[in-house]
Design brief:
The complex is a heterodimer of chains A (169) and B (752). Chain A has helices at 77-90, 127-130, 159-166, and strands spanning 18-22, 28-32, 36-38, 42-45, 54-59, 65-71, 96-105, 108-115, 118-124, 131-135, 138-142, 148-151. Chain A has 169 residues and is α+β, with helices and mostly antiparallel strands. In chain A, the strands form 4 sheets. Chain A has a 3-stranded antiparallel sheet. A 3-stranded antiparallel sheet of chain A has the order 4-5-6, with helices on one face. In chain A, 25% of the residues are buried. With 752 residues, chain B is of the alpha+beta class. Among the domains of chain B are: 9-125, Pleckstrin-homology domain (PH domain)/Phosphotyrosine-binding domain (PTB) (PH-domain like, Roll); 160-478, ABC transporter type 1, transmembrane domain (ABC transporter transmembrane region fold). Chain B contains 24 helices and 17 strands. A 6-stranded mixed sheet of chain B has the order 13-14-15-10-16-17, with helices on both faces. In chain B, strands 1-2-3-4 form a 4-stranded antiparallel sheet. In chain B, a hairpin with a 2-residue loop joins strand 2 and strand 3 (47-55). In chain B, helix 6 packs parallel to helix 14 and helix 18 (602-611) crosses helix 20. Chain B starts with 8 loop residues before the first helix and ends with a helix. The chains are: A alpha+beta (169), B alpha+beta (752). The A-B interface holds A 23, 25-27, 39-40, 48, 85, 88-94, 105-108, 110, 115, 117-121, 123, 125-126, 128-129, 144-148, 163-164, 166-168 and B 1, 30, 32, 34-37, 63, 78-81, 85, 91-94, 97, 99-101, 103, 138, 145-146, 148-151, 155-156, 275, 346, 349-350, 353, 468. Bound molecules: adenosine-5'-triphosphate and magnesium ion.
Chain lengths: 169, 752
């Protein structure tokens, strides 16, 4: 990987100089100390599933990339909290830690689940396509409306739910 | 499932008294912290506000912006959610966040709000907002259930009887044979019931037990009877089997032919929404299952029911007391085998799922074998396959072992009833109340009695699955093409080639327009060039010209007639396309050139290839025009494929020619050859050409530049260069890029 050509160089932002803040009306603001300030910035993960806290890109309102942040944890505390909060909202993927009920009818799966963002009932069409095995018991579930849910280890759910999910994994 | 929510009336009244008439309300399911919660966006004549709902009557204001301050409302799709933002005169405000369940609603709300902010206060109060209707047909009107993607109608509400009736209608042409088949099956089963009776009650009791004078004679007759029963039943089995084989093949053939015909008639949008694999599986598996149901299943069902009744009757007539002993465990047997099959089915469905995953890996790696070899990834692929294969192996061991464990025990439990018969029946024989023959006959019949019982416990499962298959096949048969001819379409055997777009707006999903207010006119024989960034909507324009889709708003005319009124056959017959991703069918080069004109002579084929600059390389192949191109034409190079496609278009001799990136991804020399071929092809035809390499478009009469679905510039190439706008910038950018390739000259030429 060391001898990739020049244009493949990644533009890392110096974590010491990165400041994230929210405007009073809730818009993400990005300041690169002593250099520039972007009033409406956007930030996102290069690997939202595998490494949600590393390789964070930052873009301006015209979708031009300003640079990459290697790891959220290198940032100064306040910026870190704000960026985490921003990503938490930007990547809406509640963690399911309990399934109260899972039933099947005509190939549709009806979930009644407890998530870290509150209880939620949803329906999954064509589970074979929309329940994706990410390995080591981790599942990504996409419901009929395109909402995403994460299950960190499905084998820890109740026995009959595990049995149903086993069919797909 | 999401239930419709409404704002409290009392709250609304209070609000109206204070802030003006409520024009629009929209619920969102995410609160300001990113948790699930209840938020409301409310637009009154004067304000756009966001409230958090804390109880049935408890609302607290979060955000309020004055309507007059707002310049623009925008929505942005994020991952799994979206946000609604307002741009005000001096700020940008994040109004609220919503999950994807409400993204269509907010998309729609944003459009309404943008209209609203442009009105004055009085006009606003007259503004009528209706919530978006779900036109996607994905919810059942009757019960609110979501409709699975394989079905057009709600499977819960559909009339099972109606499907069954319709299914039987397909078997109707074969009714004579089917009835005959059923009669033979019944006869065969009846014959099977004879031997136990003959060998038990007759042989053991009447002949061996009572030893009448004519015992010998009777013995012979019994043997002859046994022989006849067996012989006849074999004969019937053979005839029945042959007939069933013929019938089932004919039925499958008919069904498959009908579904394939239906598939070919459907519009492109049908295929956009579905995976090829799932359509294929319907034509292959579901049709087979239907066939099994019609040919074997129904009769089997009938026979099993009759067997159950018949054997029951025989048992009772021989010995009512023993018969009761057999019947008593029956409900337990039914329940047990029902549970058993349900469990086993779950295990096996996991097995099938893994099986299809393994097939997918296999498919993937075999079609990508070049890439694997090129990157020397054989070992990784072996491992990937091995992982899937091992998964399958584990599932298969588990399923088969569970089966091997449970099935014998199930049988064991089922036979327990017969032990009672031995015990009590044996005692009766000892007491002289029953005979040995009766006991033996009983034991023989019991086995045949439990079979149908097991089958009946699975009957609902079996019926549901068959009817589901039926529905999937019917869905294909019934699907209506989105693009249809009028009852009396205008016939245009000779299109002149004048094409006009009039304020056309279109989106693959109606709520996400890809093209907006597109208008242009191409005169007969002119060439229109379409330029724009990737994803701008260029290919979408030509999809509309071919009427693969119908526009949502506006109209498209050919020679002054709306294309919706022209017979599709006439449009497609006279529109020719050369696409970047050329698709060749598995066949010879000649077959592919003559695809659209099957009656072409050899001479015509060669002439077309010559015009397309393809003749020279085709003749270097050992098999010339008879060279097989392989699946999708993989045995030819990209440029070679391209020229065959051009030859195909030449032979087709279209009035309207469409070139979508016909010269990308080939070297300069080949490009020149292809360009030359195209130059020959466009003469006297209306042409729409899309190109990233602008040099291709130097001969265009008109150019349009598309940016995010809108025309941002139009005019002749030289006009656009002079204007120094988008096109000029694109040309300059390419000049810098390809300065060495001699395209500079060409640009300068245009500038001059
Ligand atoms: N069948 C489809 N269903 C849904 N969206 C589609 C479909 N085809 C294209 N799109 C979307 O419509 C937009 C325009 O696509 P289009 O193919 O017209 O672009 P284009 O200008 O031809 O781009 P390119 O130069 O890359 O070929 C894109 O955003 C694309 O994602
Ligand atoms: Mg395209």
């Amino acid at each position: 990987m060391s001898n990739l050509p020049e244009f493949g160089d990644l533009q890392y932002l110096d974590p010491q100089d990165v400041i994230f803040s929210y405007s009073t009306s809730g818009i993400l603001r990005f300041t690169y100390k002593d250099k520039y300030c972007v009033i409406k910035a956007d930030a996102g993960c290069c690997f939202p599933l595998k490494m949600p806290e590393r390789y964070i890109w930052v873009k301006d309102s015209k979708n031009k990339e300003l640079g990459l942040i290697k790891s959220i944890n290198e940032l100064e505390l306040n910026s870190k909290e704000i960026l985490k909060d921003y990503l938490y909202k930007r990547y809406y993927m509640p963690n399911i830690h309990g399934v109260n009920k899972l039933t099947e009818e005509f190939g549709l799966w009806y979930f009644d689940a407890e998530t870290d963002r509150g209880p939620r009932s949803f329906v999954v069409k064509d589970p074979r396509q929309n329940i994706i095995n990410l390995g080591k018991g981790r599942l990504l579930v996409i419901d009929v409306d395109g909402n995403r849910f994460n299950i960190n280890d499905y084998t820890l759910l109740s026995a009959d739910v595990v049995m149903m999910l086993d069919r797909l994994v | 499932m999401l239930t419709a929510r409404s704002l409290s009336e009392a709250f609304k009244e209070n609000l109206e008294a204070e802030k003006g008439k409520v024009i629009l309300t929209q619920y969102s399911d995410i609160d300001e912290k990113g948790l699930y919660g209840d938020l409301w966006l409310i637009a009154t004549t004067n304000f756009i506000e966001v409230y958090k709902q804390k109880g049935p009557e408890e609302y607290s204001l979060r955000i309020s912006v004055s309507m007059d301050e707002v310049l623009d409302i925008s929505h942005q799709n994020l991952v799994g959610c979206g946000v609604l933002q307002a741009t005000t005169k001096n700020d940008m405000v994040l109004l609220l966040q919503y999950s994807n369940s409400y993204s269509r609603d907010f998309n729609y709300v944003a459009r309404a709000l943008n209209k609203l902010i442009k009105l004055d206060e009085n006009e606003r109060s007259d503004f009528a907002f209706h919530h978006i209707e779900d036109t996607s047909k994905s919810y059942c009107q009757k019960c609110g259930r979501i409709i699975p993607e394989w079905s057009e109608s709600c499977p819960a509400c559909i009339d099972k009887g109606a499907i069954l009736k319709r299914l039987l209608a397909y078997a109707w042409p074969f009714k004579g044979k089917l009835i005959l088949l059923t009669v033979m099956m019944l006869l065969g089963t009846a014959l099977d019931l004879v031997p136990p009776y003959l060998s038990g009650v007759i042989l053991i009791d009447k002949v061996l037990g009572e030893r009448p004078l004519n015992a010998w004679q009777m013995l012979i007759w019994v043997v002859i009877g046994l022989f006849a029963a067996q012989f006849l039943s074999t004969l019937i089995a053979v005839v029945r089997g042959r007939m069933a084989a013929w019938l089932s093949a004919s039925l499958v053939y008919e069904l498959r032919k009908k579904s394939y015909e239906a598939l070919q008639r459907l519009s492109l949008s049908y295929y956009d929404k579905r995976q090829t694999g799932s359509i294929m599986s319907r034509l292959v598996h579901d049709v087979n299952r239907l066939n099994n149901f019609l040919i074997e299943g129904l009769q089997y069902f009938l026979v099993q029911v009759l067997l159950l009744i018949g054997i029951g009757a025989i048992l009772f007539s021989i010995n009512a007391k023993l018969a009761f002993l057999v019947i008593i465990p029956a409900p337990i047997a039914v329940l047990l085998s029902y549970k058993f099959w349900k469990y086993i089915w779950k295990l096996f469905s996991s097995f099938w799922h893994r099986n299809s995953k393994m097939t997918a890996v296999l498919n993937d790696s075999l079609s990508g074998v070049r890439v694997i070899k090129a990157f020397a990834q054989e070992d990784k692929e072996i491992e990937r396959f091995d992982n899937r294969s091992r998964d399958l192996y584990q599932a298969s061991v588990q399923a088969e072992q569970t089966w091997a464990t449970l099935y014998p025990w199930l049988s064991f439990v089922l036979t327990l009833g017969s032990l009672f018969v031995y015990l009590i029946g044996g005692r009766d024989v000892l007491l002289g109340v029953a005979t040995v023959g009766q006991l033996v006959t009983f034991m023989n019949y019991i086995w045949r009695f439990y079979g149908p019982l097991q089958f009946l416990s699975r009957i609902t499962d079996w019926l549901t699955r068959s009817l589901t298959s039926a529905e999937r096949v019917f869905e294909i048969l019934d699907a209506q093409p989105d693009v249809v001819d009028l009852p009396n379409p205008i016939r245009m055997p000779h299109i002149k080639g004048e094409v006009e777009f009039n304020n056309v707006t279109f989106g693959y999903d109606e709520h996400e327009p890809v093209l907006q207010n597109i208008s242009f006119k191409i005169e007969e024989g002119e060439m229109l060039g379409v330029v724009g960034h990737s994803g701008a909507g260029k290919s979408t324009i030509i999809n509309l010209v071919c009427r693969f889709y119908d526009p949502n708003e506006g109209e498209i005319t050919i020679d002054g007639n709306n294309i919706k009124e022209i017979a599709q056959q006439d449009i497609r017959g006279q529109v020719g396309m050369v696409l970047q991703d050329t698709f060749l069918f598995n066949g010879t080069i000649a077959d592919n050139i003559a695809y659209a004109k099957t009656d072409a002579t050899m001479e015509e084929i060669i002439r077309a290839a010559k015009i397309a600059n393809a003749h020279d390389y085709i003749t270097t192949f050992p098999n010339g025009y008879d060279t097989f191109v392989g699946e999708r034409g993989t045995r030819l190079s990209g440029g070679e494929r391209q020229r065959i496609a051009i030859a195909r278009a030449i032979l087709h001799d279209p009035r309207i020619l469409i070139l979508d990136e016909a010269t990308s991804s080939v070297d300069t020399e080949t490009e020149q050859k292809i360009q030359q071929a195209i130059d020959r092809l466009v003469v006297n035809r209306t042409t729409i050409a899309i190109a990233h390499r602008l040099s291709t478009l130097r001969n265009a009469d008109k150019l349009i530049v598309i940016e995010e679905g809108k025309i941002v510039e139009a005019g002749s190439p030289s006009e656009l260069i002079k204007r120094k706008g988008y096109y000029y910038e694109l040309v300059m950018a390419q000049e810098i890029d390809s300065g060495k390739n001699g395209e500079v000259a060409n640009v300068n030429e245009q500038l001059a």
